[in-house]
Structures are given as C-alpha cells and as structure tokens.
C-alpha cells in the first residue's frame, strides 16, 4: 500500500510539474507589421525557446509571466514553434509581398545616389550619352565608310569625353560612399547605411527585399544638414521603389507637423503611394519610416 501511495504521489507530482510550465500565445496566426511580426504570450518559466521552421533555436526571457520575440517578415508562411518546459505551441507568421529583388534595388538606388553628387550639367550629358549610345555607334560606322580619317577623329573626341565622364563618376562615387548600399545582403535584418544623420535598415530574405526602415535622430532633423540628408535619402528610396516622392514628402510634412503639435503621441501614421506603404512613427529621440508592401 505504501509503495502504491508513493507511486501515486510521484505521478501527481509529474502532472503538477507539467501544469507549472503552462504556455500560451496571444494568437495562432500573426501578420507582420513594419519589418517583423511580434509574437507574444505567457509562460510560467524563466525563459522560452522558439524555432522558425528548421532554423536555429533561440531563447528569450520571461518577465512577469510574459514573453515576446520578433520574426522577420518573409515571402512565404513561416511556422514558429514555441517551447516552455515540456509545453509546445505552434503559430504561423503569414507571408508578405517583397518590395523588390535586393540586388536590383541596390544597383538602382546607388546609381541615383551617385548621380545626385554630379553637377546637373554632367547629369544631362550622362543621360544623353546613355540614350544615344547605339545611335552614335551607327553614325560612326557610317562615317568610317565615307571618311575614315574623320571617323577616327570623331572616335577620339568621343573617347576623351567618355573618359572625362568616367572620371567625374568615379569622383561622385567616392563622395557618396557612405550613402551607398552594399551590393549583396545576408538574410535577416541589418543596418545597410549608418551615419550620424540617417540609418537605413533592411529585412532581406532569400534575396528578396521585404522591407526598409529609415531611422533619423530627431536632433538631426533640427539642423539644415540633417534635414538635407534625410530629404535626399527619403526621396531616393521612394523613387527607387517607384513611389511618388513629391506626394510622399508632402504627406510626410503634415505628419511631422502633427507630431510636433502633439509630441507625446506615438501613433503610427501610414502614407501610401504606388502600392508602397510608408509607416511613420516617433520615439523620444528618433523618427522611424518603414517601407513595405
């Protein structure tokens, strides 16, 4: 009888131990906002473990019985397993649309940034040369048949002009180096550009650019240099995404004005242009603009 009683007590202790590690999630399905989906829940353990699909496991602390962690948005649904003790919960983070192929976006953006460092006259010369390249080649070929000497002279002149443009482009690239995006990016959320005036953060998944964040210290927005860097970066990012930069900036100015009149507000405002969402938010010391689809 004593052995049976001890066995029953042991079985009851196991059951109670299982109950002491209860685990819940606030939802079973999450939709990303900004760059991530925020998974929240309750647990009676010091920490919980989570795993996205078959990727590495991660641990987060439980504070006052609650926990949270972030899962970067991806182009496909993601199964996330949360574990506390012997308890398991599985939730789904829904897929979101990507903004662009990352390498294509970075190339186009960098070209625009470098171009912004060229004098307007040189920009026009470069645009004209690119548009008329095939036509110029045909004209030279025709001239070579009629007058080889004249064609040789014209070719040297064009070569000299092209070398001058390349030199100007190289100078502009050096001047713009701190504002250029890396040509490749690893999976995950990373700062791609980081200066005292602006930070450009991106979520890249399997070469897909899932979202961008432009982060600006509010103190820099009070300086002319900071305003100029912010305005240029914001306009170039929007233009590369095929949004209407003039429209977005006009709407943003109203958001900024409203924020100044109510500095305690942390409510997110959304601006839409060409299917791109620009979500603006404020902290005590930073301005955040998230760009997603």
From TrEMBL:
Coiled-coil ranges per UniProt: 126-175
Signal peptide, first to last residue: 1-24
Keywords: Coiled coil, Signal
Protein name, UniProt field: Lipoprotein
